[in-house]
């Protein structure tokens, strides 16, 4: 399998922007009215249609490089460090703390230690996972991708890589969205379980990112067709808005969802490859900070918003305060409690720093090139 494994700056910046978008949407949730049949949850819809699909697509693209540089044993160790350890940290640390704080704010008494067992049982229930369902899905997807990782080193993979060139000319790249839309619509027509449908839907986005990175000219095609992606995205958004304003049936809206999400991914990836493929000294820090920030952002938002919602200020000012204070606290926690220590780096999925290199009387610490997401 002949594919370059150098780091691509635009993937790192797009991943950071996707997590930033998830953060901004999550911070808006406390200030939006509950969803009803007449007034759907617009924040959740935009989150599931743009940032989360992009995150899964980028994860699939990055997994190709991870698999090419590592054998099966190293891939398992990387999976434990980048996905399993942060997931366990959240399920047995962050979420129980968040549940206990909600229990304490409701007027109940008792310390965290006395309530910890009950909090852990509640944290292990999928209904209380909040943002962690993305981590759970990624952990399962990487296990499901193992056959593809092994297949990469076979001759059939090279033949398949060449066959993907058919999608490069013109606007054929958009045909890659058809399998995703077909699965989604078929599941709706057959009445399959909603959770299973969403799980397979996100997995196809991971596989799509894997194949687009497997044949780099597909990424070049996304960059070349970025304007077409934007035009089609605007049309899809207009149809979605028109359907909601004129009370179109839920089936019609759901059938538009996979195309809508795929166009968001193609548009953002195309423009990101064109304008964000530049090196910057902050990129190493952003890569280290992005994953812990994703784990910390929702607990911090929920805690801070619990106090801010009692204030008598315009919602816009309260939203700005929640956003800035949550981000600032996450930066402080990362720099003070996570980044300096090997054990906390491991539990939050941060690559361990390389040991100091002594040169005479001066000790220089080499900054690590963080791995991409997992």
UniProtKB/TrEMBL annotation:
<protein>
    <submittedName>
        <fullName>Acyltransferase</fullName>
    </submittedName>
</protein>
<feature type="transmembrane region" description="Helical">
    <location>
        <begin position="173"/>
        <end position="190"/>
    </location>
</feature>
<feature type="transmembrane region" description="Helical">
    <location>
        <begin position="130"/>
        <end position="152"/>
    </location>
</feature>
<keyword id="KW-0472">Membrane</keyword>
<feature type="transmembrane region" description="Helical">
    <location>
        <begin position="319"/>
        <end position="338"/>
    </location>
</feature>
<keyword id="KW-0012">Acyltransferase</keyword>
<keyword id="KW-0808">Transferase</keyword>
<feature type="transmembrane region" description="Helical">
    <location>
        <begin position="83"/>
        <end position="103"/>
    </location>
</feature>
<feature type="transmembrane region" description="Helical">
    <location>
        <begin position="252"/>
        <end position="272"/>
    </location>
</feature>
<dbReference type="InterPro" id="IPR050623">
    <property type="entry name" value="Glucan_succinyl_AcylTrfase"/>
</dbReference>
<dbReference type="InterPro" id="IPR002656">
    <property type="entry name" value="Acyl_transf_3_dom"/>
</dbReference>
<dbReference type="GO" id="GO:0016747">
    <property type="term" value="F:acyltransferase activity, transferring groups other than amino-acyl groups"/>
</dbReference>
<keyword id="KW-0812">Transmembrane</keyword>
<feature type="transmembrane region" description="Helical">
    <location>
        <begin position="12"/>
        <end position="31"/>
    </location>
</feature>
<feature type="transmembrane region" description="Helical">
    <location>
        <begin position="293"/>
        <end position="313"/>
    </location>
</feature>
<feature type="domain" description="Acyltransferase 3">
    <location>
        <begin position="9"/>
        <end position="333"/>
    </location>
</feature>
<feature type="transmembrane region" description="Helical">
    <location>
        <begin position="43"/>
        <end position="62"/>
    </location>
</feature>
<feature type="transmembrane region" description="Helical">
    <location>
        <begin position="196"/>
        <end position="216"/>
    </location>
</feature>
<dbReference type="Pfam" id="PF01757">
    <property type="entry name" value="Acyl_transf_3"/>
</dbReference>
<feature type="transmembrane region" description="Helical">
    <location>
        <begin position="228"/>
        <end position="246"/>
    </location>
</feature>
<keyword id="KW-1133">Transmembrane helix</keyword>
């Amino acid at each position: 399998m002949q594919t370059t494994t150098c780091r691509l700056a635009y993937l790192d910046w797009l991943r950071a922007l996707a997590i930033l978008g998830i953060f901004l949407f999550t911070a808006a949730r406390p200030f939006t009215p509950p969803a009803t049949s007449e007034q759907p949850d617009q924040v959740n819809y935009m989150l599931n249609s743009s940032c989360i699909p992009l995150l899964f697509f980028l994860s699939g693209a990055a997994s190709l490089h991870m698999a090419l540089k590592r054998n099966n044993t190293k891939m398992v160790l990387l999976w434990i460090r980048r996905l399993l350890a942060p997931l366990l940290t959240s399920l047995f640390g962050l979420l129980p703390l968040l549940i206990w704080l909600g229990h304490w704010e409701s007027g109940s008494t008792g310390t965290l230690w006395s309530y910890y067992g009950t909090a852990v049982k509640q944290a292990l229930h999928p209904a209380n996972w909040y943002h962690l369902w993305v981590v759970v899905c990624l952990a399962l997807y990487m296990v499901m991708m193992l056959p593809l990782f092994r297949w990469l080193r076979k001759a059939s993979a090279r033949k398949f890589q060449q066959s993907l060139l058919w999608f490069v000319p013109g606007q054929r790249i958009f045909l890659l969205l058809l399998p995703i839309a077909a699965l989604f619509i078929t599941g709706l027509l057959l009445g399959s379980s909603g959770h299973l449908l969403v799980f397979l839907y996100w997995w196809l986005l991971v596989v799509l990112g894997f194949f687009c990175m497997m044949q780099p000219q597909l990424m070049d095609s996304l960059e070349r067709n970025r304007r077409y992606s934007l035009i089609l995205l605007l049309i899809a958004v207009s149809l979605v808005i028109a359907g909601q304003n004129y009370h179109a049936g839920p089936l019609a809206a759901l059938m538009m969802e996979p195309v809508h999400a795929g166009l968001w991914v193609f548009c953002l990836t195309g423009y990101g490859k064109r304008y964000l493929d530049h090196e910057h000294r902050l990129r190493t820090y952003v890569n280290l900070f992005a994953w812990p920030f994703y784990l910390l952002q929702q607990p911090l938002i929920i805690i801070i918003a619990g106090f801010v919602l009692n204030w008598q200020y315009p919602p816009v000012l309260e939203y700005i305060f929640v956003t800035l204070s949550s981000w600032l606290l996450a930066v402080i926690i990362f720099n003070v409690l996570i980044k300096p220590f090997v054990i906390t780096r491991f539990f939050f999925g941060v690559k361990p720093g390389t040991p100091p290199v002594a040169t005479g009387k001066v000790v220089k610490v080499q900054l690590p090139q963080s791995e991409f997401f997992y």
